[in-house]
Design goal:
This protein is of the alpha/beta class. It is 48% helix and 18% strand. α3 runs parallel beside α4 and α4 runs parallel beside α6. 47% of the residues are buried. It contains 9 helices and 10 strands. An 8-stranded mixed beta sheet has the order 1-4-3-2-5-6-7-10, sandwiched between helices. It has a two-stranded parallel ribbon with strand order 8-9. The structure holds NADPH dihydro-nicotinamide-adenine-dinucleotide phosphate.
């Protein structure tokens, strides 16, 4: 699943959960900014193939790979193939995520563990796999995708909110570990964003959340992607360990 061009090497961005929603918008935004893109997805081959075409049209080399981010070995292999094929990963974005919303009393152990394994373990696996080569080069930027739920908590989302709070703690702690070695680690904390993930919510719930924002509306995936691209870039060279809300003023 590789499209090659003959341009001189571009920096490489690696994005988990890149095939849809916020990850997809980020892939397109970073391709516009001049990056080659390696993205992974869980199972939706059609969405991945569509994005591959769009990235090629934007002039980016693209590696698309089916990877379950909850599997450390699969993530390590994806990162290694990316570096072998395209060169060093300059930017890593952890966007793969799922919800299994339910009140805690009704939640199955599997619903808890699936969410934590995908969201939190998944972010850890990506960070763990990219950080060593970044440390060797003394350069790199990691942006995790957390959530306002991880900052404020949210009824019906104990599993999800806990996984996102974990991502925030991972981000801040890793930033402190690797900052002196030239690596920045930041997070975006989106509010309600119009993607497949939020499409399953009742309209009434979505309207309620939108009403609670200062801007009075849900956000777009591209608006989160702009924030990710900023934090990833050298324009944010003195920002690390930050959690940037992208929530319309919720
Ligand atoms: P989508 O459901 O639109 O996209 C999720 C993406 O993650 C898909 O590419 C999917 O691949 C991939 N994915 C899911 N599970 C795995 C897995 N185990 N391994 C690899 N890839 C996986 O979600 P969003 O774009 O809305 O969400 C992106 C991130 O933003 C998530 O971390 C989410 O928690 C966070 N977020 C979203 C908000 C929102 O309102 N939308 C609000 C706050 C945070 P495939 O299609 O193949 O399954």
């Amino acid at each position: 699943m590789t499209a090659e061009n003959t341009e001189p090497a571009r920096p490489v961005a690696l994005i988990s959960g890149g095939s849809r929603g916020i990850g997809r918008a980020t892939a397109l935004r970073l391709a516009e900014d001049g990056y080659d893109i390696s993205f992974c997805f869980r199972g939706d081959d059609a969405a991945a193939a569509l994005l591959e075409k769009e990235l090629a049209a934007a002039g980016a080399r693209c590696l698309a790979r089916r990877v379950d981010v909850s599997d450390a070995e699969e993530v390590r292999d994806w990162v290694a193939r990316t570096e072998d094929g395209f060169g060093p990963v300059a930017v890593a974005v952890t966007s793969a995520g799922i919800t299994r919303d339910k009140p805690l009393l009704m939640m199955s152990d599997a619903e808890w563990h699936d969410v934590v394994a995908t969201n939190l373990d998944g972010a850890y696996h990506v960070c763990r796999a990219v950080v060593f080569p970044m440390l060797k080069r003394r350069r790199g930027s990691i942006v995790t995708v957390s959530s306002v739920s991880g900052v404020q908590g949210n009824a019906g989302q104990t599993n999800y909110a806990a996984s996102k709070a974990g991502i925030i703690a991972l981000t801040r702690s890793l930033a402190k570990e690797v900052g002196r070695r030239g690596i920045r680690v930041n997070s975006v904390a989106p509010g309600l964003i119009d993607t497949d993930m939020s499409a399953v919510l009742d309209d009434a719930v979505k309207n309620q959340v939108s009403e609670r924002t200062a801007l009075g509306r849900a956000g777009l995936a591209a608006e989160v992607a702009d924030a990710v691209a900023y934090l990833a870039s050298d324009r944010a060279s003195y920002i690390t360990g930050a959690v940037l809300p992208v929530d319309g003023g919720l």
